[in-house]
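Please predict the structure of the following assembly.
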Amino acid sequence: MPERLADDTARWQEEMQRNAQRMTNFATLMLNPAPAVVGATPREEIYRKGKARLYRYVSSKSRHVPLLFVPNLGLSRPYVFDLTPGGSFIEYMTGHGFDFYLLDWGQFGPEDRDLTMGECITRVLPRMVRKVLDTSGAEQLSMLGYCMGATLTASYLGLEPESPVVSFINMAGPIDFAKSGLFGVWLDKRYFDADKVVDAFGQLPVEMVMAGMKLLKPTMEFTSRLNLWWNLWNKDYIDGFKALNQWANDYEPMPGEFFREWIKSFYQDNRLIRGELRYAGRPVRLQSVRCPVLAVGAKEDHIVPAESVRALLEVVGSTDKEYLELPGGHISLIAGRSAPVHCWPKIHSWLVEHDTAG
Amino acid sequence: MGEGNIWRPFMDQGIAAWAALMARGPVSPDLMAQWKQFLDEWIAAWGKALEQAMGTEAFAQALGRYLEQWTAVQATAQKASADMAQALGMPSRAQLSNVVRQVTDMEERIEVLTDQVGALASRIESLIHGSTPTRTQSRATRRRGQRRAAHGGKKRR
């Protein structure tokens, strides 16, 4: 019994100490609202096309095949992949010797309303691929698409089966839009008129992006605040929270024509998986993708359900294909505390296995 | 589930979460942890119930109706703004966007031309020197050059 009492007392003391630390850190957080330092990994801009930028990150380049990372276009900024020192996917990959390139699609304004998916797939992506090869001196490259970036990359590969891509990773990228969860229900053509939105706004406005994301998980704000309070005694948690929270509220608009096509051809008509997409007069055939493919879905992804990601493996012509379902949500798959444990090492080891020149 | 009953699961799941917590036995010194656990479960229950409610056709329909009203208001505001710009002799947003578009198109054409000149220059160079293609003029590079030239010849939108 005295042992139990001593144990209880120790636990109460620990809790009291944590509470005192919470108060101190809360005051610091309130009095020092300086933005978090994000995107700190050294990089060099090697090419720009319109608003798009291609960055090469500093690394030892011990791996032979360069890696081109293609994130989503609009909606959010790509610094989430290089969030904080020690918590950055890009830092992790460059630290393991990958010659890492990031395609930043840019920040769009009303003047970009005419940018189409076709232009991104037939003009921007091929140029970026070429620039990566020219800069690295390599003959082939690997591509890693995240979210919509994976859909764009898959479309590019389906259109250009001869492209010098040795391996492709689809990370949380929707392929079968019939399995797209809540967004699929809301964007049903009976209820959602993409034409009206684009004609009225010229683009997908930031307010609508924010409303859509918040509505998708209305309890998220409360959960993140609650978790912050719970972990407020932990300085590392606060630093990570500040950076991630800053990114999570940094929404971006999406060019109007791009949005129109994204909704109508992909969400509403599911043309990619049906093989009905055509760009530059040529069909996009996922069956013609022959390179090794890895699809990575997140168990609790409410933005792109895992089954929509997994569908890629059912349609590509590759014989070397693999699916990984990891814990976490759409963002925590690649950024946040669990990503370095569950996701990054798997991406790294799969790429090393498929580094054909290495 | 009828439209009038969509709030019912919040209550049911919240009560279930509370009951499950209470059934676990006496309160330990980790009162905070228990309270946090209860809140997590409570939020999860709300989240699940909300997800169910928002996954219905009725919700999608309501969202669509709201969006329609929003876009109608926006369209009126945009027309008024364009009319005012016209009355003041100022270029409209659409006209400015068109200028930007033309610049972008021009940039693209210059880039295509630069690529084609570059491809021609390397071909001429290899013909003059009679050398076999170097690594930078390898088969893959030449294939890319051909594709580039093919893309450049495409009619622009």
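Residues 11 and 46 of chain B are 9 Å apart (CA to CA). Confidence is low (pLDDT under 50) at residues 134-143, 148-157 of chain B.
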